[in-house]
Amino acid sequence: MTATVAVLLACGACFVLKFVGYLTPARWVSGPRTSRITTLLPVALLSALIAVQAFTTGERLVLDARAVAVAVALILLRLRANFIVVVVGAAAVAAVLRALGG
Amino acid sequence: MTTAGLDAGRRRAVLRQAWSVGIATGAYGISFGALGVAAGLNLWLVQALSALMFTGGSQFAFVGIIATGVGAAPSAIATAALLGIRNGLYGIQTSQFLGVRGARRVAAAHLTIDESTAVGIAQPEDEAQRLGFWRTGIAVFVFWNAMTFVGALLGNTVGDPKRYGLDAAAAAAFCALLWPRLRSLDALATSALAICLALAFAPFVPAGIPVLVAALAAVVVALRHGGRHEAPLRAEAPGSDPTP
Fold first, then answer.
1. Residue B3 lies in a domain
2. I need a labelling partner for B118 at 20 to 30 A (CA). Which of B87, B129, B137, B189 fits?
């Protein structure tokens, strides 16, 4: 699969999911279990993405500048920093640590 | 769309809200654009994601996984789709007050994201709900796409992304997307379980699969109480997500 095909398929899937909402009667998804799963699904996916992005290189588990950057990001979020500040702050920490040979 | 039922002051208030949300959210497009090209996609594919996918969490997830290689494409697509399910749930709500058919329904569906839904359902009057949804969706779309382009151009000029910590920036972006969702003990439990599952599977399965396996954490935690509803730690509303 080329990157272009992957992008188009992913865009198509996301649009179809949006559109399906406009065709679905509200009572179909009103169960408490369904709503609990759909609330927690983004939490699980985003948490896993953080873990993979910060602590793996290829298929190896690693601890490097990215782990420190994530810790800084969490501290900035705790301090209610803006999204851009969090992202740029974490990148800057990783860049500085790498420049210092970390 | 007619707004005859709204007085000028209310109309201005809704438009001001729509534009401010559009500008504030759109600004994050710059980080998406930069991370997209850092992940190895060309500028046009990054722009296509903002124009055609137009849902930030899915976009960040897609480029984060595809950065490991095109072999991870199926996982990248699946993860983007799983994160996009919530937009369908928003659509069930917004379709009630939008009353759209045909091409307008297609446009409304495409603009159904956290922010347009939040501004729309927050309005007391029907007219204001429609106005808020459409104008917020359009404002976010315009600024998000413009800033994606700027970010992709910047990303192309910086060279090696690791030197500037752009790989860490992707993890930080996911943290910022996750943060407002950690509102209940169940959410914290789901997060911890998902991290353990992802790291446990990472050494043994191809890139992208650990994230999909970790999705099971949501199912496990959600079914653990047999449908009991846990009260959120804080009030919950769509739009707490900092990107579309």
1. no
2. B189
B65: pLDDT strictly greater than 80: yes
Element of type H or E holding B183: none
Helices in B8-125 by DSSP H: which ranges?
Answer: 8-26, 29-38, 43-48, 56-66, 73-98, 102-110, 114-122
Q: Which residues contact B54 (CB under 8 A, 6 or more apart)?
A: A14, B110, B111, B113, B141, B144, B244
For residue B156, tell me if it sits in a domain: yes
Asked whether the beta carbons of residue B61 and residue A98 sit closer than 8 angstroms, the reply is no
Domain boundaries, chain A: 1-30
| Residue among A13, A25, A69 minimizing CB distance to B165 | A69
Q: Chain B residues with CB inside 8 Å of A29's CB?
A: 89, 92
| Residue ranges making up the domain that contains B207 | 182-234
Q: For chain A, what percent of residues have pLDDT higher than 90? A: 69
Percent of chain B with pLDDT over 90: 64
Closest CA to B88 of B110, B103, B107: B110
User: Number of structural domains, chain B?
Assistant: 2
